[in-house]
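Lab manual, section 2.4: Encoding a predicted structure.

Procedure: take the sequence of the chain (301 residues), apply the prediction step described in section 2.3, and record the output as structure tokens. A sample record is shown.
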Amino acid sequence: MIINRKLLLNLITVFTTILFSALIPVSVAHAESTKNISIEPVGYDIINGHLDTKNPIENPNLMEDPGYSRTDSNPGSLPDSDIATEEKIIKEDNRALITNTTDTPYRWLGMIDYTTSANNEGICTGALISKDTVLTAGHCVARGNRNFTFTPGRNGNNRPFGTIQVTQVWYDKNFDYINNDWGILKLATPIGDKIGWFGMHVANKTTLFNQYATIAGYPSDKPENTLWKDKSTIIKMTDKQVYYNTDTYRGQSGAPVLDDKASIYAIHTNGNSQHNWGTLLTNELFSVVANISHMTQSSED
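Recorded output:
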């Protein structure tokens, strides 16, 4: 049987086009997830547990430089203690249980409980950064999640500072991109006045090189509602991401990445069997976070 050469070439071309058209979306999606996209903050009030998505809060002033690149921690009105110097398991699990959750800085951490869009229970970790503001990951507060609460210093069944309702959330319109995965909760009660909050600073890639990444949070693979931490060196950085071998697990998303002075320089978001990573507090993101932390919920100024 004689096959027409031109026909054969056409068939090869069609087959190749079909094959690569099936592959391109996966490759493009992966590439787009790491694009450097500008921050686009949007906020929503919480009405009956749900985000009021019909009335988004957009404030262009949030992008303005607040005039500083670092905030100090605040111990609150409770008796102070010494500040500690310090979603995957990388090789061996090195996490340590924190039992003194009412001491600083651990009382500044808390469990975020919520209901997913599929009506399942979800948890993340958050960190107080002002009297009524909690820093966490964007994917924790988006995707149709609702009924948010924050329990600082939680230790099993013990809730030493109670559980606080969330009245407003903020995150990035492009939270699905790893460089834009950040979120903020505004609380109904200014619990930070009592228990204090973390300081934070703009991440400097030069000074962070070979430094440590300490992460404490509420992993779902450990006894329920218990706080665990680990510390490891930074292994790689990009303009907006930091990578480390610090052990974490699901539920620790949103935990602060801390330096040796317990100051936040990134937000833990994800990981794999090779390394874990977080969103750096760049100048741009620090400005947004700092400005939102100073907002009152009766004003958008």
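Check your result against the sample. The chain has a mean pLDDT of 86.
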